[in-house]
Amino acid sequence: MKNSIDTKYNMNMKGVITITNTKTGEVREFTNLVTNVFFNAIADFFTGSPSNGIRYFAVGTGTTTAVATMTALTTEYVEPRKLISNLSTADSEMIFLVTIDTTDFVGQWNELGLFEDSSTGSMYTIANIDYEHISGEILNITYKISRV
To answer: 20, 32, 46, 28: which is closest to 137 by C-alpha?
Structure first.
């Protein structure tokens, strides 16, 4: 629900995650929630205290409904987070690309997040999803964040 300040200043943001299976050609899209930490990092940047920024992607199996105040995935895979392979901007969107190899995060995915660090640090986005990564499949993931 938008409040009057959000409407007046167009402060709401949305995210869309596209997962493309390079083996089957299947393409699925999921919505993404931008966390409060994301907005705090923007404020820090403009006041001279930037963080490392969004650099890593993680997968979890937790089933807690995502809310903007979350700071971590509920149940993150023990595998190392994946370094984002490409970051770009276009038409007021931030675009993050991640490739998931055949043996990375194999199994059920219920939550995804973008982080500043490889093992700790701030979580900038979270998404509840229902996806199964099958061993042997390479996935190309495009994360987009833009104004609503």
So the answer is: 20
